[in-house]
Amino acid sequence: MAKKGDLRTQLNRVKRGVSPEKVETSDQSGAREGKGLVSGWFSLEVRKQLKMLAVEKEMTVQGLLSEALNLLFERYKKPPIS
User: Fold this and answer.
1) What is the rounded CA–CA span in Å between residue 66 and residue 82?
2) Fewer Cβ atoms within 10 A, N terminus or C terminus of the chain?
3) d(CA 71, CA 60)
4) CA–CA distance, 36 with 69 (Å, rounded to integer)
5) N-term to C-term CA, the chain
């Protein structure tokens, strides 16, 4: 039995000319509403060091990145909005 978001089910719907069903995301709280993903590709050592720093400082990686972005914005005379 296929789940609502099953890829095969959705593809079959498109082939029949039926719009794909909207699949709910795992973020039901709305915490991501009005936000966008900012990302980049870095070496595995960068990722490891960032995660270790987060543990050491008892912060999330997202919290550290927000702090870093605000420092960058301030450096270039932009408001710290992260």
Assistant:
1) 5
2) N
3) 17
4) 14
5) 44
Length of the chain: 82
Number of neighbouring beta carbons within 10 Å of residue 28: 7
pTM for this model (two decimals): 0.63
Helices (H), the chain: 7-15, 44-56, 61-75
Within 10 A of 16 (CB to CB), how many other CB atoms are there? 7
The CA distance from 24 to 5, in Å, is 8
Query: What DSSP character marks residue 36?
Result: -
- What residue ranges do the domains of the chain occupy? 38-82
Per-residue pLDDT of 20-42, as tens digits, reads: 666 565 656 788 899 999 999 99
Beta-carbon count within 10 A of 65 CB: 16
Cα of 29 vs its chain's centroid, Å: 14
